[in-house]
C-alpha cells in the first residue's frame, strides 16, 4: 500500500489540513500505516499536482490561512482502482524473532529485558486500542441503519486488538522459554 491510499481513505472519511491528517495518523491510521508529518506533506503536494486532491484556503482568525484537502474525482478513481486490485498476504519482518533465534549462539537470558520491553509496548498499545474502542464504538449507535464507515473502522481496530493479544501471548511464551533456559544455567 502506498501512503497515497491511506491519505485518500482518511480524507474521504473527513477532509482536513495536513496537520489534521498527521494527527489522524498518530491517533488511528498510524497504528497500521505510519508516516511522518514531512512524508504526509510531501505526498499531499504530489497528490495535488496529480489532481488526486483538491485544496481550498480556509481563513483563520489571528493565524495564517490553512489548506484544507479533500479527495478529487481523480483521487476517488485511483482509490477505487487500488481497492479492486488483488493484494497478497503481508510479510512480517520481525527483528526480535531473529534475535531470539540468534540467542541460541549467545546467552539467551540476555534477551529477557528486551522481550519484557517489547511486551510492555504491546501491553500499552492494547490498552490504547481498547480505550479507543470504548470511546468510539460503545453505546447506542442512534437511529437508522449502521454506518458502513464506522463498521469498517471498528473491524480494523478489532484486528489490531487481536494482533496485540496474539503478540502478548507469544511474548509470554518467549519469556517462559528464556526463564526456563536461565534456570538450566
From TrEMBL:
The lineage of its organism: Bacteria, Bacillati, Actinomycetota, Actinomycetes, Kitasatosporales. Signal peptide: none annotated. PANTHER family: TRANSCRIPTIONAL REGULATOR YQJI, TRANSCRIPTIONAL REGULATORY PROTEIN. Residues 92-178 form the Transcription regulator PadR C-terminal domain. Residues 7-80 form the Transcription regulator PadR N-terminal domain. This is PadR family transcriptional regulator.
Amino acid at each position: 500500500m502506498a501512503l497515497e491510499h491511506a491519505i485518500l481513505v482518511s480524507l474521504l472519511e473527513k477532509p482536513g489540513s495536513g496537520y489534521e491528517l498527521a494527527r489522524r495518523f498518530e491517533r488511528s491510521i498510524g497504528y497500521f500505516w505510519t508516516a511522518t508529518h514531512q512524508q504526509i506533506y510531501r505526498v499531499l503536494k504530489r497528490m495535488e499536482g496529480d489532481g488526486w486532491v483538491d485544496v481550498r484556503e480556509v481563513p483563520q482568525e489571528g493565524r495564517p490561512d490553512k489548506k484544507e484537502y479533500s479527495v478529487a474525482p481523480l483521487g476517488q478513481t485511483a482509490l477505487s482502482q487500488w481497492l479492486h486490485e488483488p493484494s497478497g498476504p503481508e510479510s512480517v519482518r520481525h527483528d526480535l524473532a531473529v534475535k531470539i533465534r540468534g540467542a541460541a549462539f549467545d546467552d539467551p537470558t540476555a534477551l529477557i529485558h528486551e522481550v519484557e520491553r517489547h511486551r510492555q509496548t504491546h501491553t500499552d498499545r492494547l490498552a490504547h486500542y481498547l480505550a479507543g474502542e470504548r470511546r468510539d464504538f460503545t453505546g447506542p449507535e442512534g437511529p437508522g441503519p449502521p454506518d458502513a464507515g464506522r463498521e469498517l473502522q471498528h473491524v480494523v481496530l478489532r484486528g489490531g486488538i487481536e494482533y496485540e493479544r496474539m503478540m502478548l501471548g507469544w511474548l509470554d511464551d518467549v519469556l517462559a522459554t528464556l526463564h526456563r533456559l536461565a534456570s538450566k544455567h
